[in-house]
Amino acid sequence: MPDVRWPEGLTDQTPLPYGLWKIMTHVDGVRDSVQVARMADVSDADVLAAVQQSQQWIERATAQQRPVSAALEAELTKILVSVVGPMATLMMDDAMEDLGEGATLTAVLSALANELDPSQMDAFVRQVRAKGFL
Q1: Bridge partners, residue 104, by sequence
Q2: Tens digits of residue pLDDT in 86-101
Q3: For the segment 99-117, what is each residue's pLDDT rounded down to a tens digit?
Q4: CA–CA separation, 1 and 9 (whole Å)
Q5: Alpha-carbon separation of residue 73 from 79, 89, 93, 102, 103 (angstroms)
Q6: Residue 95 contacts by C-beta under 8 Å, 6 or more apart in sequence?
Q7: Are 91 and 115 in contact (CB under 8 A)?
């Protein structure tokens, strides 16, 4: 069995569910997945799944911190229009203006969360995820 390693970008500060950290704590780049599984009291398949899921969490966190490009802003506006109607354009313009240059996806979502009721925010986030932006 090859040694298992932390995915690139994973740090001690990366927010992961406890079940993943329980396994990833034992991953050191020297131990193979069988050894890690024994230490974490899980199966070998669980170890390999945890490494893969950790990579997905990193990709999601990276996507959330990327700056919002004009193309992404346009896509977010389309999604928002489908949730709240034509007012969405003004809401997005205000959010982007308030956040300034280099606004991140997380910051935009937070700004919009203040303007949307919970059901609207849920619908918006679901569509953003479905498009692969989160």
Answers
A1: 67
A2: 999 999 999 999 998 8
A3: 988 888 889 988 998 889 9
A4: 23
A5: 10, 10, 9, 12, 10
A6: 103, 108, 111, 112, 115
A7: yes
